[in-house]
User: Which sequence fits this backbone?
């Protein structure tokens, strides 16, 4: 179990994480979603021991990271966003070194290396220098190095960034297999569809704060059955607000001179009505985007901006 | 401790995969050493000697004694009797260092204390050897002056030859003369001593190394070349910390239960292993080539390796405090070459001016190098060895602590 309580991290005057709390359970994947710079990696780094929290408490499998660092890190596997491999060593040598870093040795280490190589499909290239590997193979080895010591808790920091679809599918399968074995996984990503596909519990983080948390079902319920209608063009915000107020079961999420975001049920059937109201309000619509209920639309609803901005 | 070992092993594996780098570390000192040995004639080559031609026109007892004295200056001067004409011809061909012409009547003038002149022609194409000849002759002339003052009468009688048609001088005359010379020297030693001291004050590069007379010039380059190699290796291995940082493996280490001290120890052990190998190869070749006493070889290898660890720590401290890999490279290179030049790792101290030698021996590599020379030439005392090892270990410990602190406090995380 990974327990984070009121975690804060400041870099001078900048608050990277401003009081984050959550709990990742064994046998499940906890997704930490947010745009770049939201505080995901800082949170991960505080858990893994790379950064010292400014305030709050973090524990891994009951071991406090601040007071019992080595014990907490012994339970933890980390798969960093960037490749962290010795390119001039072979896959087997890399796994051997990282396994030894967690105190593994002898037959146990050999057996585990063999298992992990098979799991990641690298057994045929085990003796080859990593520098000869493809990007996808390196990603899989990067993952393998994080799980070679059979960690009870696993931190995955955007492990699928920049990988091809085939490798992404393979990596997600590997993550799921770890939870099937009882591991507790904390998974950060800014790919909403990926989070929806794999995570059991989710927290949406922005500007160092968790703005929504719960199971996927709970978060979807926060959106209701409403679609998200995003329009760009020229708008008169005050007149638009008056017009939209007359529209039943609709909510104005964002109203600016060039962007308008509406949350409303059954939006596709009511588009002509919406256009008529906006036309009456003196608007000039250039582009319309309709998004069905999703984490993406929830994020937009909560923050007024897209996740990839 | 197991992680220290596996880190060292991992680095050895990485070095082994980079045979070009490894070969350069071993090859550079051997290549440079070979070139210098070839250039200086090697161990079996001709030792530099003053080729002094002597045209003894006088051919007297005194002139013969002067020539004999010149030939006994520690084998440094090789005299060759010639006629003035032949000597001039050889000098014109540039095949000798100097030509000494002893004019007719020199011996008589000397005994009668009359002014006389010795002529010394020097070879302008040679810089040092003619100077040695000139200086030696000057000393002998001074010595002759004092001899004339003290035992002039006896010398005159000896110059006239044995009395009564005998071929040799009677033993009693020889004994009386010897006793007199001994007594006079004893009486005037207080006055002569300052002069002796003045002579000994002539600039000598290594006053403490009295045995250097027996040391081949090429041998002086052996420790210098080894330390040049160690400095390059220290820089290369230290730069590997930036490689570990850039390829994110250092960050990964921080997320394991291991600490950065163990990791750093492993890297030092790995580096020390490579350095020990290079030192062993270089020193074994050097010992075999120069016929050095093998008993000091293990100590020389150990000292060189530990000195390499010291230099590696020094480079690591600099590297981890630099803002970027590029900055670290520039900074260490900017420090490396002056250290190499001043610290006797390029040219031996023996070829450097005294003020630079004094300064150079204060540099880490210069200090360690001078200790290695003491080991190589069997001049190291047990006390000196103890002090040297203690000093080295203390400096290594301080530098290691500074590097480890920096690793913990931001280098690994950044």
Assistant:
């Amino acid at each position: 179990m990974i327990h984070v309580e009121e975690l804060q991290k400041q870099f001078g005057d900048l608050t990277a994480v401003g009081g984050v709390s959550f709990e990742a359970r064994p046998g499940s994947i906890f997704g930490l979603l947010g745009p770049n710079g939201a505080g995901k990696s800082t949170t991960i780094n505080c858990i893994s021991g790379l950064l010292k929290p400014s305030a709050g408490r973090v524990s891994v499998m009951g071991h406090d990271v601040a007071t019992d660092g080595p014990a907490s890190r012994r339970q933890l596997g980390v798969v960093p966003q960037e490749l962290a491999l010795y390119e001039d060593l072979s896959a087997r040598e890399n796994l051997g070194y990282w396994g030894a870093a967690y105190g593994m040795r002898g037959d146990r280490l050999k057996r585990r290396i063999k298992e992990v190589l098979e799991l990641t499909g690298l057994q045929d290239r085990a003796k080859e220098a990593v520098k000869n590997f493809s990007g996808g193979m390196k990603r899989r080895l990067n993952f393998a190095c994080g799980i070679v010591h059979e960690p009870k808790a696993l931190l995955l920091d955007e492990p699928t960034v920049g990988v091809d679809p085939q490798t992404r599918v393979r990596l997600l399968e590997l993550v799921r297999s770890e939870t099937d074995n009882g591991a507790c996984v904390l998974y950060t990503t800014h790919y909403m569809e990926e989070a929806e596909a794999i995570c059991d519990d989710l927290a949406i983080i922005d500007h160092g704060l968790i703005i929504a948390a719960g199971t996927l079902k709970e978060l979807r319920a926060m959106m209701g059955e409403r679609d998200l209608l995003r329009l760009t063009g020229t708008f008169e915000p005050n007149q638009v607000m008056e017009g939209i107020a007359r529209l039943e079961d609709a909510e104005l999420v964002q109203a600016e001179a060039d962007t308008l975001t509406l949350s409303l049920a059954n939006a596709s059937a009511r588009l002509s009505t919406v256009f008529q109201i906006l036309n009456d309000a003196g608007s000039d619509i250039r582009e319309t985007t309709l998004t069905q209920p999703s984490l993406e639309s929830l994020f937009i609803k909560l923050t007024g901006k897209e996740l990839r901005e | 401790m197991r992680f220290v070992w596996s880190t060292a092993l991992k680095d050895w594996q990485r070095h082994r995969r980079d045979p070009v780098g490894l070969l350069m570390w071993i090859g550079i000192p051997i290549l440079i050493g070979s070139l210098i040995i070839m250039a200086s004639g090697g161990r079996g080559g001709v030792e530099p000697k003053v080729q002094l031609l002597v045209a003894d026109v006088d051919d007297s007892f005194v002139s013969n004694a002067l020539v004999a004295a010149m030939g006994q200056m520690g084998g440094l001067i090789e005299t060759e009797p010639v006629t003035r004409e032949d000597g001039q011809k050889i000098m014109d061909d540039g095949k000798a260092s100097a030509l000494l012409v002893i004019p007719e009547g020199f011996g008589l003038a000397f005994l009668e204390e009359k002014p006389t002149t010795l002529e010394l022609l020097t070879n302008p194409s040679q810089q040092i050897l003619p100077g040695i000849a000139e200086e030696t002759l000057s000393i002998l002339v001074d010595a002759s002056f004092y001899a004339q003052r003290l035992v002039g009468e006896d010398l005159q009688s000896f110059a006239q030859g044995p009395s009564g048609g005998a071929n040799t001088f009677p033993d009693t005359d020889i004994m009386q003369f010897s006793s007199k010379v001994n007594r006079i020297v004893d009486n005037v030693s207080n006055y002569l001593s300052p002069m002796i001291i003045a002579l000994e004050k002539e600039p000598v590069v290594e006053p403490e190394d009295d045995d250097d007379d027996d040391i081949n010039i090429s041998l002086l380059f052996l420790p210098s070349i080894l330390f040049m190699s160690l400095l390059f290796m220290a820089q290369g291995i230290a730069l590997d910390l930036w490689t570990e940082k850039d390829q994110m493996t250092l960050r990964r280490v921080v997320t394991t239960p291991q600490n950065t001290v163990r990791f750093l120890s492993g890297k030092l052990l790995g580096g020390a292993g490579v350095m020990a190998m290079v030192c062993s190869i270089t020193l074994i070749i050097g010992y075999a080539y120069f016929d050095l006493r093998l008993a000091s070889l293990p100590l020389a290898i150990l000292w060189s390796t530990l000195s390499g660890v010291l230099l590696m720590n020094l480079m690591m401290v600099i590297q981890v405090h630099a803002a970027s890999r590029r900055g670290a490279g520039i900074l260490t290179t900017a420090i490396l070459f002056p250290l190499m030049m001043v610290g006797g790792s390029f040219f031996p101290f023996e070829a450097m001016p005294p003020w630079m030698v004094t300064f150079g021996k204060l540099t880490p590599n210069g200090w360690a190098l001078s200790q290695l020379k003491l080991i190589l030439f069997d001049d190291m005392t047990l006390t000196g060895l103890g002090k040297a090892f203690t000093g080295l270990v203390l400096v290594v410990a301080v530098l290691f602590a500074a590097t480890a602190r920096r690793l913990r406090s931001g280098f690994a995380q950044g």
Observations:
- Confidence is low (pLDDT under 50) at residues 192-214 of chain B.
- The radius of gyration of chain B is 30 Å.
- The CA atoms of residues 88 and 316 of chain B lie 62 Å apart.
- Chain B touches chain A at residues 2-3, 6-7, 10, 13-14, 17-18, 247-249, 251-259, 412-413 (CB under 8 Å).
